[in-house]
Amino acid sequence: MAKKVAVIGAGASGLTSLKCCVDEGLEPTCFERTEDIGGLWRFKENVEDGRASIYQSVITNTSKEMSCFSDFPMPEDFPNFLHNSKILEYFRIFAKKFDLLKYIQFQTTVLSVKKRPDFSSSGQWEVVTETRGKEQSAVFDAVMVCSGHHILPYLPLESFPGIERFKGQYFHSRQYKHPEGFEGKHILVIGLGNSASDIAVELSKKATQVFISTRHGSWIVGRISEGGYPWDHVFHTRFSSMLRNVLPQMLLKWMMERQMNQRFSHENYGLEPQNKLVHLALREDYDGRHHQEEQTKD
């Protein structure tokens, strides 16, 4: 008898988990609290509690070749870097190709996941869900949590003495959707992650003036690199990886800084990171787009 697996969430991780379960002959059931697949990459105009939120113009930081699932390349006519609507389209193609929708229970919230009384011998879990006000309980042999980690914003207001006297707006980047409505404003964007940079550039076309505040600086890397190739095609090669593993750290540091400064001198703009190699490594993070320390203020 096939083992039953509960998959929580129908975003990128949930969909691939479903496919892997089916490939292995398991019996998966996916619980998705919203009405559709896509998770983080499904843009909605309004912020929803318990769900990741993106702004309308979000484009991937990694190329389609580096972003696709290993067993399912993206369509050739897709651009090198994808708008969030294209990522969602890819998920739909993937789900249809492997007939995954039949395993998903939409508008179903997982209320609790608990070990069964006989867990030590059975290894089973009790999962309680709610669908349109009706609670249900089911037993599973395994649980895969695929709900993501960009749901709760970090907004440390205690770090801004006097914020209660500020007359303008202040909010986390999670609440930002598009630049309309910021015309004529003076804006301070705190943070220099991918979201902060995107939002600052976008707002600069509407607002009177936009400032960016950064504590540690950051390497500014364009999506397009040497020869017009996507940056990750150039950076993530076997040869580059081998060099990073065998070269002395001081030489590696010099080479990387030289490469990062080809476009412009970070020192001249006060952007040179204090912990240079660590910050460079962070550029490899696929989900750097939603760094939790970012917030937008007016």
UniProtKB/TrEMBL annotation:
It is a single-pass membrane protein. SUPFAM superfamilies: FAD/NAD(P)-binding domain. GO terms for cellular component: endoplasmic reticulum membrane. Its EC number is 1.-.-.-. Keywords: Endoplasmic reticulum, FAD, Flavoprotein, Isopeptide bond, Magnesium, Membrane, Microsome, Monooxygenase, NADP, Oxidoreductase, Transmembrane, Transmembrane helix, Ubl conjugation. It is found in: Endoplasmic reticulum membrane; Microsome membrane. It catalyses: hypotaurine + NADPH + O2 + H(+) = taurine + NADP(+) + H2O; hypotaurine + NADH + O2 + H(+) = taurine + NAD(+) + H2O; N,N-dimethylaniline + NADPH + O2 + H(+) = N,N-dimethylaniline N-oxide + NADP(+) + H2O; trimethylamine + NADPH + O2 = trimethylamine N-oxide + NADP(+) + H2O. The keyword Membrane applies. GO terms for molecular function: flavin adenine dinucleotide binding; N,N-dimethylaniline monooxygenase activity; NADP binding; trimethylamine monooxygenase activity. Its cofactor is FAD; Mg(2+). InterPro entries: FAD/NAD-bd_sf (IPR036188), Flavin_mOase (IPR000960), Flavin_mOase-like (IPR020946), Flavin_mOase_2 (IPR002254), FMO-like (IPR050346). The keyword Thylakoid does not apply. Pfam families: FMO-like. Broad spectrum monooxygenase that catalyzes the oxygenation of a wide variety of nitrogen- and sulfur-containing compounds including xenobiotics. Catalyzes the S-oxygenation of hypotaurine to produce taurine, an organic osmolyte involved in cell volume regulation as well as a variety of cytoprotective and developmental processes. Belongs to the FMO family. PANTHER family: DIMETHYLANILINE MONOOXYGENASE (PTHR23023). This is Flavin-containing monooxygenase. The gene is FMO2.
